[in-house]
Hints:
Mean pLDDT: 91
Strand order of the largest sheet: 3-4-2-5-6-1-7
Bound molecules: adenosine-5'-diphosphate, zinc ion
Catalytic activity: Couples ATP hydrolysis with the unwinding of duplex DNA by translocating in the 3'-5' direction
Radius of gyration: 26 Å
Number of strands: 17
Strand content: 5-15%
Number of helices: 23
Organism: Dyadobacter helix
Low-confidence stretches: none
GO cellular component, one term: replisome
Protein name: DNA helicase RecQ
Keywords: ATP-binding, DNA damage, DNA recombination, DNA repair, DNA-binding, Helicase, Hydrolase, Isomerase, Metal-binding, Nucleotide-binding, Zinc
Distance between the termini: 53 Å
Largest sheet: 7 strands, parallel
Amino acid sequence: MPVHKSDALKKYFGYDSFxxxxxxxxxxxxxxxxxxxxxxxxxxxxxxFQIPAILRPGLTVVISPLIALMKDQVEALxxxxxxxAFLNSTLSATEADQIMWQAKxxxxxxxxxxxxxxxxxxxxxxLRSWNVGLFAIDESHCISSWxxxxxxxxxxxxxxKKHFPxxxxxxxxxxxxxxxxxxxxxxxxxxxxxxxxxxFDRPNLNLTVSPGRKRxxxxxxxxxxxxxxxxxxxCLSRKGTETVATSLKNAGFKAEYxxxxxxxxxxxxxxxxxxxxDIQIIVATIAFGMGIDKSNVRWIIHYNLPxxxxxxxxxxxxxxxxxxxxxxxxxxxxxxxxxxxxxINQTEQPEIQKEVLHAKLNRMKQYAEADICRRRILLSxxxxxxxxxxxxxxxxxxxxxRFDATIIAQKALSGIARTDQKVAMGMLIDILRGSRNRNIxxxxxxxxxTFGVGADLRAEEWAxxxxxxxxxxxxxxxxxxxxxxxxxxxxxxxxxxxRSVELVKFIPLSERKAKEELx
Length: 519
Ligand code: ADP
Ligand code: ZN
């Protein structure tokens, strides 16, 4: 048995050196101290508890909610000569019994347990007779209702410190903002634990936000510039994944969909094919990707806006794990925000919880609408100080210029005023641009003085400016009246010329620099 962490790293994992923070974290655990580890997906969290598990006396109990992954992880450990096992609902009673015996006899170094299993039957009582030397809590953000993946069964883990006050706990997560971190420590009863934060920066990931128009067309163009390169398209709904996959297949691409509504067999088949590069593109809901270790995913597209920055960061983090350049694209339109807001409002959650979700969504919206370096926004979300623009996001490549848009704002506002504040985006743009379609004629909107006053701007320009006006509070929107635009006191000041408006200049896709041409 090696006595030093570097020997263990070489002997069991075949690596010559630790990544940043790993050695410090291991030293901390070896000194019997509790800690919280934040490292991005693929950052190398496992070694932080696996090496102490090898070097320390006794058994390391690993709590993980990802039943599907336990088997792989345990196989990998065994393959490296480390005695390990897992306990979850996939085992028969006999198999489980056998593993409990092994644990009792001290034949295991690591035991992975799903939290619901730990607190069912008398497993928890057995822990006392197992000579446990360390608890590792993976995906520890699941314990916090401030996190984005709260699991009630994780709450019971507060029993660990109470019953085993002298056994150190190492909590790990790839995704927790400051509030969630504090809550993790509190829930686990390890408030004084040191928190280690590895850098979340993934400079090889190109970040781009693209207007959510003609998404399929944009995707096709994008993929044809990423010939045979593996990628994932994330959609909001199961139905969405099927529609997008079908249209890509019809266009001749090797694409399949993946969502939790499919049978387990079909799902693992698709996953296998993707891992083996038999399928180029997976169109999936968020059900896809947890623990998928494919290093050569070259691009990620978000077809719809994710519900929060943590999820978004985890999902784009599945690209470029080999360190080579990878492209990520987020499609964004203001309808995506509305859909997400409606989803939150419709959930049956306590009001306070809804507020958290809305606040998180709002941060996502800020990212999508940013006119400063997007990576700065992402990293500052994870409380990482950045003192330079990244040069590898669409904002850095196309710095935004602001201009006096008071007249543009007045045109839009008077369009809203003259239609009695009853029109929504599509109709307002048609009025401004003077489109004589049936709907317009039916309402007699072609006779309005505002009809056609904005014909000099393209529809997508108007859409972008109107969104900016919404975001800066110059226009209101009534979600409960078919998203009709409303005037507010600021609108009236602008209309009367008492207040000026600045907007960020629109740059057509075709004129955006470099990487954007990919889309
Ligand atoms: P996480 O759990 O943080 O998502 P893993 O622990 O699965 O990440 O590690 C991701 C990959 O990085 C694994 O293939 C792992 O073997 C590798 N890895 C971890 N630490 C090192 C290291 N010090 N040197 C080289 N590779 C490492
Ligand atoms: Zn940037």
